[in-house]
TrEMBL record, chain B:
Keywords for this protein: Membrane, Transmembrane, Transmembrane helix
Keyword Membrane attributed: yes
Annotated coiled-coil segments of the chain: none
Protein name: Energy-coupling factor transport system permease protein
Keyword hit for Transport: no
Principal location class: membrane
Subcellular location: Membrane
Transmembrane regions: 41-73, 80-107, 113-134, 248-270
InterPro entries: ABC/ECF_trnsptr_transmembrane
GO cellular component: plasma membrane
Organism annotation: Halopiger aswanensis
Amino acid sequence: MATENTNWFSFGQKDMTVFIFVMSLSGLQYAITEVLPEFDVGPLELGVGDFIFIPIVLVLLFRTFWAALAVPMGEVVFEDILLGDFNGLGVMEDLLLVSTCFFFAALLFQDPKNRRQLAAVVLIAEGLNEFLAMFVDIGKVYIGVEELEAVPGLPESILVLEGVDFITQMVITGIIFGVIPALYLYPKLHGKIEPLMGMEPYKGTRGASMVRGFSWKAALSVLLAFPLAFGFAAAEEAGFGLNVVWEPEFMEAYGEMFIAVPIVVAALVAIVVWQRAKHSA
Amino acid sequence: MSYQEEFRDALSIESLKQDLLRTAYDNEGTIFNRLDPRVLLAWYAAFLVIPWLFYDLRILGGLLAFVSILAVVSRVSKYLIALLAFGVVTNVLLYAFVTVLMGGSFVRSATALLPYTTKLTIVSVTSIAVFSGMSPKNISRAFMSIGVPRQFTFAISYGYRMLPVLIEEYHATVTVYRLRSRAPESPGRFKCRYYVYLIRLSIKAFYPMIFDVAKRSRVTVEALETRGFSYSLESTKSRELQLGDLRVGWFDLLFMGGSAIIVASIIFPFV
């Protein structure tokens, strides 16, 4: 594993090339699928989701942490920032979840000639990502909706819809736009694209099982990424947990002046960001 | 023109492409671009927090109206706004509908969800307005000023320059594939065979793209290195140069003060 010997954050020239390469292509893919007629019926995404085969095949070819990190970066830069769909801290959710899940799946991939393994790894990358993202989504609604349990049927409907969404996502994004095109694309690119970037193609071991690539370190990093991602996403949704405190009783207890609190908080956030910006400039 | 044709025209690749490029590039002269990027970032951070502090729909509605006006002023893409609106409406309806299936009440679940989705919408509209109203140079500088690594701020300006090139190239590749292949004889029910054909083409078109982008990335990095990119990452001098001409002017103060007054006047009548 190239990434384990060197510092993860040392960024060589080759890493930069791979980073730009993967970022541009997965970004292009996100930009195109963003505007393709897809139907987001509420939380359910029907129709063309993402062409997930592009990023996953590239990560499997280059197998570095930077390649995996470039996937969510492509989404952030092309889809979120340039097309203006940026959602603040929620971006951290993508950066953490997508990159660790993809990297983890790439480590599991041991035998490039084994097509069954290739299919399994693509499904693991997408499945793990969707599965963890599902929990983040459910948690977000629980935090964001006031007295959720008080509305009968609503918590169940959230669980049901997220579950259905997970299944449709796995079928559409995972299989139709994931496994099938990846099976076509990976063998075609393997050994051709790496030399173009000045790299050795990944040989792997013929007949090696996926278990060999399983590392506790990588598994742990996925497990760590999940609570972190949830923390960031929840912080974004909940405004740093402040609306949990914001109950009507406070109004009675502290009177009208309590309205000053959120304004002061917003001002404080602005000032902190401003100070940080000015300080490092 | 019939409704169907109009709809197809609105969704044609050419018009989508133009809409995309306008979103990403047409930001000269918007208010957000005239502001100091650091001030704008601080303003944005405050606006990410404010909606979460209220449950009153009148306040949230007022805030939504305010950010929507800002979005109109910064000329955001109608297509993206339409997608957003569709998503929000179906979100509430679908949750409410499934709640009924689970034995709950449609109205109660919709009213419970409404403040939450309104907050999400406020945040999304603010984001679209701010980030499509800011030039990528300013976005990079704003992020650089809060200490985001240079590799990432570089990625923003790179993406900005590459997006039209890549989309143009992709579109050309898809067109070439269409010329060289045969469309299905009969479109099938609901034109499904035709769509499958288009999707297959759009997947295949990525294959030549990958090689082109690989070559281009390598050339880019080589060009960057001859200009001392890695060296400038470490150097504080280069940072100072890039951030040196940021100034807070009267316009920034006016904008901050103005939005504070507007937000206060939205909130106070209802508390």
